[in-house]
Amino acid sequence: MDSSTTRESSRVFATLIAVQVAFGTLPVSAKLVIPAVGAYGLAAIRLLGAGAIFAWLARREVAAIPWRDRFAIAGCGLLGMAANQLLFLGGLSRTNAVNATVLVTTIPVFTFIVAILTRREKVSFRGGAGVLIAFCGVVYLVGAGANASRETLLGDMMIVANALSYAIYLVLVRRYAQRYSAKAIVGIGFPAAALVAAPFGFAELRGASFSQDIVLGVAYVVLVPTVFTYLANAWALRRARSSTVAGFIYLQPLVGACLAVWVLGEALSGRLVTSAIAVFIGIFLLIRRNPTGGLENEAADDDSR
Fold it and tell me: Which residue in 179, 258, 291, 292 has the fewest CB atoms around it within 10 Å?
C-alpha cells in the first residue's frame, strides 16, 4: 500500500469515526433541548432545516431525476425520515438516552428481517443467529420492563418502532439509491418528510422557549448529527466497502451511553449492560455473515438515525 492510499484510508476511517461520534451525540443533545421546544417541535425543525440545506445542495442532481422517481423517493422519505424522526424524538422524550442508544442499533436486524420477507435476502445460519441474539437483548431490555415507569416503556417501544420504520425504508429506497446519489436521495426525501412533520411540530413550537442555549442546541442538532453525518457518510461510502461503513455503528452506543452518564447523570444498569452486549454480538454476527454483500449493502448505502 503506497503513501497516498494510506492517507486516503486514514481519511476515510477518521471520517467514519467522526460520523458515528456525531450520531452518538444526538440522544443527549436532543434530550437537552426537547424540554424547551418539544420532541415533535425538534423533529420539525431538524427536518425543515436539514431539508432546506439538502434541497439546495442537491438542486441540480434532483432536476435530472424523472418526476416518477422523485415521487417514489419522496414516499420513501415519509417512512424513513418523517416517521423515523417523529418516533425517535417522541420516544426519546419518554425514555432515557442510554436506552435509546442501544435500541437504535437494531436497525440492521430489522433490515435483515424485512429483506428476507421481501425475498431480497437469503437466510443464513450466522444471520439467523445474529437476529435471534439481538432480539433477545431487545426483549430483555424492553419487554421485561427495564424501567418501572410505564412512560419509559412506551418510549422504548417507540424507539424500536423507529428502527423498524427506517429498516423498511432502507429496503424500499435501495433501488433508487443504486440509480442516484445519496445527496439526491436526501435532497428529495428530507423536504418531503419536513412537510409531513411540520404540522406535528408547529403545535409544540407555539409554546416553545428559545433561549440562547436552546438556539445553539437546536442548531447543533440540525448541523452536526444531521447535515454533517449524512454528507460525510455519503462521502465515505464512495471510498469504503459498505460492510466497513456499517461496522462503525458500534461506536454510536458507546458514545451515547458515555455522554448520557456524564452529561445527563443517567445510570448504567446491569440489565442495560447485558442487553447491550447481546445486541452488539447479534449485530456483529449479522453484519459479518457475508463480507462481500448482502445486508451490508442494504443497511449502509443510506445510513441514518
Answer: 292
Instruction: Give tens-digit pLDDT for 177-221.
Output: 878 888 899 999 999 999 998 988 888 888 787 899 999 999 999
C-alpha 256/C-alpha 220 separation (Å) is 15
DSSP letter for each residue of 146-164:
SSS-HHHHHHHHHHHHHHH
**Dist CA 120 CA 97 (whole Å):** 33
Q: How far is CA 296 from the centre of its chain?
A: 15
DSSP 168-219: HHHHHHHHHHHHS-HHHHHHHHHHHHHHHHHHHHHHHHTT----HHHHHHHH
Name which residue leads in pLDDT, 248 or 69: 69
The C-alpha atoms of residue 97 and residue 255 are separated, in whole angstroms, by: 11
The span from the CA of 113 to the CA of 117, in Å, is: 6
Percent of the chain with pLDDT over 70: 75
Q: Please determine, for residue 233, whether its predicted confidence score (pLDDT) is greater than 90.
A: no
Other beta carbons within 10 Å of 223: 15
SS3 label, residue 285: helix
**119: alpha, beta or left? (left if phi > 0; alpha if psi -120 to 50):** left
User: 3-class DSSP state for residue 265?
Assistant: coil
Predicted TM-score (pTM) of the model is 0.73
Which pLDDT score is estimated for 113?
Answer: 80
Residues whose CB falls within 8 Å of the CB of residue 16, separated by 6 or more in sequence, listed in order: 233, 236, 240, 244, 245, 248
- The span from the CA of 166 to the CA of 188, in Å, is 16
